[in-house]
Amino acid sequence: MTSKFEINSLNTQIQEQVQHIINHKTKPLGALGILEDLALRICLIQETVSPKIASPTVVVFAGDHGITQEGVSPYPQEVSWQMVMNFIAGGAAINVFTKQNGWDILVVDAGVNHDFDPALPLQHLKVAKGTQNFLHSPAMTKAQLDEALEKGANLVQKIHDQGSNCIAFGEMGIGNTSAAAAIMHKITGIAMEACAGRGTGLNDEGLEKKIAILKQAIINNPAYTPEEILQTFGGFEIAMIVGAMLSAAQQKMLIVVDGFIVSSALLIAHALYPQILDYCVFAHQSDETGHKQMLQFLKAKPLLNLNMRLGEGTGAALALPIIQASVNFINEMSSFESAGVRESEDR
Ligand SMILES: O=C(O)c1ccc[n+]([C@@H]2O[C@H](COP(=O)([O-])O)[C@@H](O)[C@H]2O)c1
Ligand SMILES: Cc1cc2nc[nH]c2cc1C
Fold first, then answer.
1. What is the pLDDT of residue 344?
2. Cystine design at 153: which of 200, 247, 262, 328 (Cβ 3.0–4.6 Å)?
3. What b/e readout covers 50-72, taking b as 16+ CB neighbours within 10 angstroms?
4. For the chain, which residues make up each domain, given as ranges?
5. Residues 103-128 pLDDT 10s
6. Cβ density class 267-299: b for 16+ within 10 Å, e for less
7. What is the ipTM score, two decimals?
8. What confidence tens digit (pLDDT) does each residue in 263-321 have?
9. Whose CA is nearest to atom 4 of ligand 2?
10. Which of 208, 237, 312, 343 is catalytic?
11. Which residues constitute the catalytic centre (predicted)?
C-alpha cells in the first residue's frame, strides 16, 4: 500500500524569481525571517509567485489503543470517545482555535472503542474498536494497516478535490503517546527513556512503569521496516495520518504538523518518502518529552514553542495564521519600487 505514492521533490525553477520578489519588498533584507522561508517554500510547492492558502482544513483523527490495559495513561480509555463527542459539540480547544480563524475542521473515527451513532457529523472510517495490546502482539494486522493507510489517503484526496491545498493534522487517543514513543524509538534508535514522556500527566512512578512496559513491548515484538513498525506499535489514527500525509504530499498540499503523535506519523512517512519534508511545516514544539529530539531527527524547525502538550491539532491551528501571514506578505506588500521607497545600495 505505501509503495503506490508519487511524491516529488520541489521544483526550484522559480526560486530565484521568488527570492527576488521577497528581497525587494519594503523591508530590510531578510527582516521577515522565517516568514520569508515559508513564503518561498509555499511558492515552490504551488509553483507560483502568487501563492494561496485555500480552504485550510484541520483533520482530527481519533483512535484507541490496547496498550492502555497496562496503565500507561492516567486517563481511562473512554475519554477518547467522550472527547470525540466534545469535538462534535464544538467544546474542545481545537474547536475554539479553528473557530477563531474560520478554518474548517473534520473529525475522524479512525478506530475508537465506541459505537458512534452513524448520524453524527463524523468521518466514520473505523478500522476496529481500538488496537490490540502491543505488549503481547502487534497492534494491528497487515490488512488493518493497509485499510487505515488507504482510508487516510482517500479522505485527503476528497478534501483536496473539494479545493483545499493546506491540511493540518491532529489526533485524539488515550494511550497514543506510548504508541508514538515506541515508533520514535524504533525509527530513530534513541533510548526509550528519551522517547517516552508523561503524556496526559503521569507522575514519576507512572512514567517509570510506562518506560518499562514499552521496553518490554519492543523486546516481545520484532519489527524492522517502517510498515512493520507502524503495524506493530501504531494506532489506527496514527496509520491513517501516515496515509493522509503521503496523499497530501502527492497532491502538493501544504502539510501542517502538530505535536508528538502527529510527528511520529511523519517519522514513518519520512522513512518511506524522505522528500515529504518539502511539504511539511512544523507548527510547534510540544512539551512532551521526546518531541524536541524527534524534531531534531527530522531537522525540523518548529514555528512556536508555547509549552503545549494537548494534541487535537491545537498547535497546528495556532500556527496557521503565521503561515497565512507569509502568503499575505508576498502577495500584498509593496516593493521598494511600487512604494517609492529608496532601497539600500549594497543588496
Ligand atoms: O500533541 C502532543 O504533543 C501531545 C502530547 C501529550 C499528550 N497528547 C494528547 O494526550 C493523549 C495521549 O496521552 P496519553 O497519556 O494518554 O498517552 C492524546 O489524546 C493526545 O492527543 C498530545
Ligand atoms: C481531557 C483530554 C483532552 C484531550 N485532548 C487531546 N488529548 C486529550 C486527553 C485528555 C485527557
1. 81
2. 247
3. ebebeebbbbbbbbbbbbbebeb
4. 57-320
5. 989 999 999 999 999 999 999 999 99
6. bbbbbbbeebbbbbbbbbbbbbbbbbebbebbe
7. 0.99
8. 999 999 999 999 999 999 999 999 999 999 999 999 999 999 999 999 999 999 999 99
9. 310
10. 312
11. 312
